[in-house]
Design a protein that fits this description.
- Helix 10 crosses helix 11.
- Strands 1-2-3-4-5-6-7-8 form an eight-stranded parallel beta barrel, surrounded by eight helices.
- It has a single domain (3-232), classed as TIM Barrel (Alpha-Beta Barrel), CATH 3.20.20.
- Helices cover 48% and strands 17% of the residues.
- It has 233 residues and is of the alpha/beta class.
- Bound molecules: pyridoxine-5'-phosphate.
- Residues 7, 9, 43, 70, 90, 92, 100-101, 131, 151, 186-189, 207-211 line the site of pyridoxine-5'-phosphate (PXP).
Length: 233
Amino acid sequence: MALLGVNIDHVATLRQLRGTKFPDPVTAASLCELAGAHSITVHLREDRRHIQDRDVKLLRETIQTRLNLEMALTEEMVNIACEIRPDSVCLVPEKRQEVTTEGGLEVQGCLKPIQDAVIRLNERGIQVSLFIDPDQKQIEASKKTGAQMVELHTGRYCNHRSQKELKTILDSIHTAKELNLVCNAGHGLDYVNIRPLAKHPDIHEFNIGHSIICRAVLVGLGQAVREMLSLLT
Ligand code: PXP
């Protein structure tokens, strides 16, 4: 069974909308863990639009499973990760105007900075994942960086829901396996479009946020996490 990492950024989005103390992503993380989530993911964006530094620090202290920190490849973020020491870091591209992470990293174009970051983070005991488009070239370039994992961006598949996009993801999972890279997947996955991928033996972990938090508004967070886990079992 693939593991389920729950991305709780949108709990923080709701909090930031009104500048209140609630809902607290730290509380949300505990509820996800109680419902069986295998890890908690947060994206500390450079503009701090949802998750705040305080959240990451408190989550590091309170999370009982694993903390996965999504972040841009900047000096500031690598320093923060080295200080807080999440269990893993997922390097993502970040554009200030985007609503969410729109595409994967262009790995070949910045091999050296990624390699340097991987070394620094690994030295602190942090595993590194690269968020990439499901593209053979990106996977091959990822291998050269020394990163332990890739996370395949499933956004195009989720938007188009076509057999062609599904095949692109399946081929990429295969390539990652051949190159001995741990393969995760995420972005845009929901309770319906995850089905063709849910039981794939070579997907290590799904990172899912928006659809779970949206369902939680209607059925509660524990129930939303349990429903997603039942699809993976
Ligand atoms: N994985 C990565 C690297 C992401 O940037 C995001 C979005 O923050 C997700 C997974 C989760 O995407 P969604 O919220 O669409 O489930």
